[in-house]
Amino acid sequence: MSFIESEQVGAVLRLTLDRPEKKNAITQEMYQTLANKINEAASDFGIRAVVISSNGDSFTAGNDINDFANDPQMDSGSPVFNFLFAIHNFPKPLIAAVKGRAVGIGTTMLMHCDLVTANPDTKFSMPFVSLGLVAEGGSSYLFPRLVGHAKAAEIFFTGRTFSAQEALEMGLINSIAEDELAAAMAFAQEIAEQPPTAVINTKALLKSSSHEALNQVILAEGELFKMATQSEEAQMAFMNFLAKKSKVK
Asked: What's the whole-model pTM score?
């Protein structure tokens, strides 16, 4: 199973993370499926926007720890990189509807989205340092540009959780809604009614100043991330994390 649902609603493609029993923790297979669907949507004129959402009570718990501890694929051409470059290079509007926990990639992928809606109870976190890792997904470049160095350093260094309201004040999300998916789909439908070439060209202009620089940052982060996963520090952090999870169960 790919654990990714795909549904086209008019000119909007909705991609849904569908592994609720694991808090939608993302596996290599899920990354590759998302990358394939997004790349296909890029070349399909009948699709004007993509919405990423989730089933269950969380957006995503981030990378599947067991999957990545056993096989940390972070090379160019790996499923993770294929997904990151798919969302980075996607020429059409990319929208996310977020609820529950948005951990790690669940927060960093939002920086590549054009619009994000979140439930009031959403909790965001990027606990890379806490796991002995480094920021990924271009977030070491995008997040400081969004919130400033001081705030980015505070959140990255501590790995602390922050609320939907704080995310709104940072500019990470566009709106807070009780029905975050309905709000996201409304955004998408409104955009889908605009002249499509004008939308695509406007997005290209908005991203033009940083697009190539971000390519290089994503690759550099990937190298450091892979090195970190192989370190004793990260292995200890993973084991502590898994031990805490087993105690909770």
From this structure: 0.93
